[in-house]
Design a protein that fits this description.
This is Flavin reductase. Belongs to the non-flavoprotein flavin reductase family. The chain has a single domain, classed as Roll (Pnp Oxidase, Chain A). About 15% of the residues lie in helices and about 40% in strands. The protein contains three helices and twelve strands, in the order αβββββαβαββββββ. The structure holds flavin mononucleotide (FMN).
Length: about 180
């Protein structure tokens, strides 16, 4: 089994793998693509992420990880609520829009596509699955802030999930 290309690079503890090897291994993994959203000073903000999955079913809870060195994590923590929008394979443009600075201001939110819930969370009408979450926990773990969000509302729309692997957005294929 090939484990490491350079066993010494970036190690911090005797049983640690290198950050580069970890990133390379994770590039092989297929992820769904999500735009997480929140309100900051009453304005919608959002970010494209792939570090998202179900944490627990009872209660329905999602786990989301945001880089700790960007303003987004602190703003989402301050909002106390966030939206999770699983994009469809017809929405790679939205993924691109929210993966750079414009996603942090209201201009990225096309008013024809988004609805702000009564709780104050922007949700994308055509997202294949969308969730309104309240922050149950937010804690720092290394480079990221880990959010546990309890789901307080949800909706679905027809379509297949947009995927990401090895630097490219992708569509689901059948065997
Ligand atoms: C496919 C993809 C997945 C990403 N996943 C995450 C993620 O899980 N967590 C995160 O904090 N940022 C993630 N990002 C990065 C953010 O979308 C954004 O690009 C980054 O925070 C840069 O923001 P800046 O414009 O403020 O520098 C991802 C970006 C892309 C394109």
């Amino acid at each position: 089994m090939t484990r490491r290309s350079d066993p010494g690079a970036g190690k911090t503890a005797p049983d640690a793998v290198s950050v580069d090897d970890y990133k390379t291994a994770m590039r092989h993994v297929v992820s769904p693509v999500v735009v997480v959203t929140w309100l900051h000073d009453g304005k919608p903000e959002g970010l494209t992420i792939t570090a998202i999955c179900s944490a627990t079913t009872e209660p329905p809870t999602l786990v989301v990880c945001l880089r700790g060195d960007k303003p987004a994590a602190e703003r989402m923590r301050a909002a106390g609520r966030f939206g999770v929008n699983f994009l469809s394979d017809e929405q790679p443009d939205i993924a691109r829009r929210f993966s750079s600075n414009p996603g942090h201001d209201g201009e990225a939110f096309d008013p024809g596509l988004w609805t702000v819930t009564p709780g104050g969370v922007p949700l994308l009408d055509r997202a294949v699955s969308r969730f309104d979450c309240v922050v149950e926990q937010a804690f720092e773990q290394g480079s990221h802030v880990v959010f546990l969000g309890r789901v307080t509302d949800l909706a679905t729309a027809p379509g297949a999930s947009l995927l990401y692997r090895d630097g490219f957005f992708r569509r689901l294929g059948t065997e």
